[in-house]
Write a structure and sequence with these properties.
By secondary structure, the protein is an alpha+beta fold. The protein contains five helices and seven strands, in the order βαααβββαβαββ. It has a single domain, classed as Aminopeptidase (3-Layer(aba) Sandwich), CATH 3.40.630.30. This is GNAT family protein.
Length: 158
């Protein structure tokens, strides 16, 4: 069995805008995010600006993004946002790195990093029911399906 990729998460910086914009404008990546459509330039810039804002971590809506790298190469982005019920996490993997276990390694990194950043273990994720790979990754790491709302499965970390 092949060992999982060695992934490092570090805070997202403005310099990674081009990398993220490439994923956000790629229909393969966005098909399970939001309305399933690639993001336009304005949406990309608005989301990045909000992510870089560094609002107080206890404020609902605050987000922190993390760049995932493997051997110093950008492979994905982990997104975390404070919600009323906990910290919502999500992960985007560059299609160039699909099928190698990158998402699982990113999620493992998120599970050790994000609770420390926000000082809480109350983690949740929203997943399109058609995204069975993501649902499987979450359940293998202790998340449980809690509810289904607005066409999405809501998972919480048990």
């Amino acid at each position: 069995m092949k060992p999982p990729p060695s992934i490092t998460l570090r805070p997202f910086h403005e310099a990674e805008t081009v990398f993220f914009a490439g994923m956000a404008s790629d229909e393969r990546v966005t098909r399970f995010i939001g309305d399933g459509q690639p993001w336009d330039e304005q949406t990309i810039q608005d989301r990045i600006r909000a992510a870089l804002q560094q609002d107080p971590l206890d404020m609902v809506g605050t987000s922190r993004w993390f760049l995932a790298t493997e051997a110093k190469q950008s492979v994905g982005v982990v997104v975390s946002t404070r919600k009323e019920e906990g910290i919502e996490i999500g992960y985007w993997v560059s299609p160039d790195h699909w099928g190698r276990g990158i998402a699982g390694a990113m999620l493992d990194g998120a599970l050790s990093t994000i609770p420390e950043v926000y000082k809480t273990k109350e983690l949740l994720a929203r997943v399109d029911p058609a995204n069975t790979v993501s649902a499987k990754l979450l359940t293998r790491r202790g998340f449980q399906l809690a509810t289904q709302q607005e066409g999405l499965d809501h998972y919480t970390l048990a």
